[in-house]
Each structure stands twice: as structure tokens, then as C-alpha cells.
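Exercise 7. Given the components listed, write out the predicted structure of the assembled complex. Treat all entries as one system.
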Amino acid sequence: MLSYDVFEWGKPLKKAERETPKPRGTEVLLRLKYCGVCHSDVHIRDGYFELGGGKRFHMSERGMNPPVTLGHEPYGTVIAAGPEAGDAPIGADRLVYPWTGCGLCARCREGMDNYCMAPRYIGLHRRGGYADHLLVPHPRYLIDAGGIDPVWAATLSCSGLATYSAVSKLNPIPPDEWVAVIGAGGLGLTSIAMLRAMGHERIVAVDIDSAKLDAARAAGAAATLDGRDAEAPKKLREITGGPIYGAVDLVGAADTASLALGALSKGGRLILVGLYGGEIPVSLVATIQRALTIQGSHLGTIAELKAVVALARQGKLRPIPIQKRPLSEVSRTLDELKAGGILGRVVVET
Ligand SMILES: [Zn+2]
Ligand SMILES: [Zn+2]
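Answer.
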């Protein structure tokens, strides 16, 4: 099999050839067809995430050491299964849930691997999808995405899943209540699309870039607000006619979280997704008296990925622009992503 691997943090991926693995135990082997190229792979290749305030999250401190095969949006055909894999769907095409855990703890057995205390994610801790073959630890991580374009399906397992999981933490949202989506980059626009797919319309998008606010309107936001405005809290209240039901913060900076928290009504929820980083003082008494919830949302569960696929299959979720490229161009694609030169998503054909 061949793959394109990180041999040294921050350096271009290099082609690697090795023997195609044979699935053991509950493992299944896929001949991959596609893998989405996620912006987070730029940071992982570089070996760290910038968290703001001078803080960095280093991959090597989290048990990741080169060589690693990135790619956490794989899609392919199941070609072989280990003796304990049960009725693995040999010959069928499947989307892979990449956020696999230890496979043994209570959370993993419930399909909530993203809450496992010993994560073993595909494309981070395990070999990922920038390859022609992929070993998946158990057939329960295979998802039938039949009925939707497989190239698009590949991209649902990261930003699609993460935004679905975040906005669904606000459910059920009464239709006449407002939800703020803070940050209208890729994750913000997908969050708006998810809320619309779930039938919610009263969405106000907040960003500091007017082009992104235009994109938010095109994605289905009912109103937009320039976060640079010194009177942003007051203007938000004018748009929504009062305090809001919930907010999803895709930035995760002190000023965005403060704006959202200050805007919530009693019983309101702030869902934190963005990893910009920072700290805010939180009044314990006000949190109690306003019955507020501040909740982090990280990736999503297997059931949530199935729900995202179902929304896509029902035609409720708008596809994003996708470019197909050969696997050999994956390293160049990461460079272009880093330079900000790609609109929509690149999916490599493996
Ligand atoms: Zn990703
Ligand atoms: Zn586990």
C-alpha cells in the first residue's frame, strides 16, 4: 500500500510504501476512494496548534510522533475483515467515523468514542486516509452514506459532524427564538447550514469581516452583526428584540464568549467550539440566577454522524463547493490551505 506521511513536523508529506496490512481481530480493511483534506491537518503537519495568548498545543506532547499518516475524512470500499469482525459489509462502500477511542470503555461501547479518555483517532493517533488502504478497528465505525455523493460524504465526518453536534446541543430550539452563530468562517457557515437543515430560521451571524457576513446571509442567516462595532451587544439586542435563546461560538476568544454570554436569556446556552483560546470571568451567582449553561462541544458521536448523513440524504443540507485532486497532491493542498488559497473543500482521490 502507499500513503503520504509526515516524517518530520512542519515538512512536506513524503510518499511511503509498505505491505498492505491484514485485518486482525475486529479490524476491517478498506480500499480507500476519497479522503477530505481538513484545515486542521495543516496544524497537525506543522506539529502544533496555536491557541492564542502565546499558548501552543504540541502534537508530540499528546503521544503523536512521526511517521504519521494524516487524513480523518476517509471513504472507501470494505475489502477484508478480521475473524472477530462479525458481519462486516465486504464489497460495500462506507464512510468512516474517525474519532475512535479505546474501544473498551463505557463511552466507546455507547458509540461516544469522542468522550473516551484514551482517544485513538484515525488520521492522528492511528494511520489515516492520505493512503490507498485503511485499517479501521471495528465495523461499528463504518457508516452507510448511500444515496449521497461519496465525495461530499467524505467531508461530513469532521466539520459536518462537529457543527451538527454543537448546534444540536441547543435542541429543541423554539422557532421564534434567536440563535447567534459567532464566527462565519467554514465552521460558522456549516453551523448555519445545520441549523437551517434542522428547520431553524432565526439565526444571527456575528463576524468582523463583511465578506464573511455576506456569506453567512447566503448560507441562510436571517441577520448579521459586525462584531467590531463598539455597540455590538446593544445592536444584537436590537436585532433579536431581547435576550437570545442560545449561541454557538466558533471562535472561542474572550470577547466572543463574553458577547454571547451577555446576550443569553434565562436558561440560555452557550456552546463553545472554536479553539482560539482565552479566559473570561464568569459570575457564579449570575450563572445560577440566570440558569445559564456553558458547554464545550468537541467532534461528535457515531449516532450524530449518522444523523448528519440522514440530513444530507434528505436533501436538507446544502453541499459545499468541492475540488477533487489526486492523492499525490495532498502535500501541496496543505500548503495552499495554509496560505488561505482554497475556497470550499479539497477531497483527494486515492
Ligand atoms: Zn478536520
Ligand atoms: Zn474508550
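Discussion: The domain at 2-158+300-349 is CATH 3.90.180.10 (Quinone Oxidoreductase; Chain A, domain 1). The chain has two domains: 2-158+300-349, 161-296.
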